[in-house]
Amino acid sequence: MPAAENDNIRAAVRQHVVETYFTGEHGHSLGDDTPLYLDSIDFIDVVMFIEERFGIEFMSSEIDRSTFRSVAQIEKTIRNKLE
After folding, report:
1. What distance in Å separates the CA atoms of residue 69 and residue 46, rounded to the nearest whole number?
2. How far is it, in rounded angstroms, from Cα 77 to Cα 79?
3. Are 67 and 73 in contact (CB under 8 A)?
4. CATH fold group of domain 3-82
5. What's the predicted TM-score (pTM) here?
């Protein structure tokens, strides 16, 4: 997958996470590897966002908090599903 597509995936994920879970200046300091401490409702929301935005589906066996622990890991998970 070209680097530009990776950047678009990362940007979309970052935007969703920042707009949904961060307020004020905290979103500006969100690095690609910053741990995301999401509760169960937030976690489901992220999965639903990914499925809708990128047109992919997750099997329940694929959904694990470790694969959604950071923006970088979410991007990697999406890229793997799109291949």
Report:
1. 11
2. 6
3. yes
4. 1.10.1200
5. 0.83
